Amino acid sequence: MNGRGNLSRIIGKECYKQLKASQSLDFERMWTKALRHTEILRARVQALSQIGDTQVPYVLLSESSINVGDTVVRKGEVLVQKPALIIPPNNPQFKGFEFEENGEDFNENSLINFLIVRGISFPSLRYDNRTSSLDVFEGKLSAAIKHYEKIMQQREEVRTGLLIGPEECWQFSILIFICSQIIRNADQDIRKLLDEYHKRKET
After folding, report:
1. How many domains, in total, are found in the chain?
2. Which position among 82, 127, 133, 186 has the lowest Cβ density within 10 Å, counted as fewest Cβ atoms?
């Protein structure tokens, strides 16, 4: 009994290790593909709010893997919120990114661990992705880009980001977009601090 019990535990641990390794490889493959093929065509002009929640709308265009020659159009927004409770640094909360679609072992906690190991940190905020529509544009990606760029220019859209990325790893493409917004926001915050400092120095 003891021998069988120990053997079961050993097999269980090995299966768990293999599962974790496979999970990490899948995340790695998706992340690498998203980094290579995600492109932010039109960045959000408005900065993220420093005192309240911020809605970050986006339009993500992807080449369709089912209807070759067509483009998948994913519209939605990421609601960036400050948590109600004070939480430690580098402890973001991701909701609505549907990593579970890639398997029951994919989830937001796995994502956080994956990012931390690679030195990628997000502010300790809540990032709630809300997909509003998923449509097909009957035309190639290049045509879809021209179509949506024209619409945004006509509307003088400054809140919505336009990006392209692989269909199978859309979650990572959106995370890359949000990360770029955070970096832009930090740069603007630093500039504001410097401007205020120089103004005080002059007076």
Report:
1. 1
2. 133
